[in-house]
Amino acid sequence: xxxxxxxxxxxxxxxxxxxxxxxxxxxxxxxxxxxxxxxxxxxxxxxxxxxxxxxxxxxxxxxxxxxxxxxxxxxxxxxxxxxxxxxxxxxxxxxxxxxxxxxxxxxxxxxxxxxxxxxxxxxxxxxxxxxxxxxxxxxxxxxxxxxxxxxxxxxxxxxxxxxxxxxxxxxxxxxxxxxxxxxxxxxxxxxxxxxxxxxxxxxxxxxxxxxxxxxxxxxxxxxxxxxxxxxxxxxxxxxxxxxxxxxxxxxxxxxxxxxxxxxxxxxxxxxxxxxxxxxxxxxxxxxxxxxxxxxxxxxxxxxxxxxxxxxxxxxxxxxxxxxxxxxxxxxxxxxxxxxxxxxxxxxxxxxxxxxxxxxxxxxxxxxxxxxxxxxxxxxxxxxxxxxxxxxxxxxxxxxxxxxxxxxxxxxxxxxxxxxxxxxx
Length: 424
Description:
single chain; alpha/beta; Aldehyde Dehydrogenase, Chain A, domain 1; Aldehyde Dehydrogenase, Chain A, domain 2; 2 domains; 7-stranded parallel beta sheet; 4-stranded parallel beta sheet; globular
């Protein structure tokens, strides 16, 4: 009887073999495969949504929270958005074979760098079935094979989506084994992937803090071990109140269950008297719970329907992924910067200000993967940055930082062209 570990080994070996074929495939063929995937998201919509409904109902029965269920849910609009992202990747330049730089040495040698695929990418992800499409598409375009291991909560959805991808690429002339889906939900397979040296070239986890910590502690292969978002927006003393309210509301409410959603709003004390009532009113209308420091609670006053409670130290380091937001009052930009340095995760942080000097200081001094001036942190996204989609948003400082698109899924090799040179 085949075990989960056997399944990984067999499928990883098949992926490694297919990766060699994919690495030399012309860009036109890869693009045709991606277009086939995009079209399949429409033509097989009913099948996919039926599978997703099984997962969603099981999640409700299991008592999963609303944030988790939101990440799990697929709808016709979300499928169309996924298809649009796939078509966006088609329009991007193929990174494979790109010459990064080239120079001629004094001895006549032409020395350069050329982009090449990483090989086999493994990904472990939890409740987001869209990851099955996003990562598959980016890996295919960048010449990498992919091993997908989704969570049991989305097993029906991921099975349907992975089947669509394999069918689509086979029809376009690519090896179906380029995309491998682990059917077993045995947790032992995660441990096997963390140590799959020689089979997986890069491991990308997509999930909560527990998964990221496990990968960081136990992986013996290269892995992306950052990505948890504790995201801040600082409302400076010079901020336009309406602009600040719009930005913070969007960052918190537009989709609260994702990693680039706001977790803490920091407000300069000079701006707080006019700003706090405005954002509190907007938050109250949609049920956002404000977890406030003592000064913010004192200044809030009475707002109909508002949920406001004292903040705890743990709240400052929590990626809420829900309709909760920490609120802190500070007396200077320096205090805001100190708070972000102390409690942030290096993901997405923003300032709302009309002061150019403060804006530049924020950009220069906040050490995060993406830093924003007068814009919502929700823009820290591969599609929004023109990457088509992303396999993850990395808070690592190398080999990739921020949204990981096509170029971040490649390495390079040195190429040396001569006409008979030998080393003296």
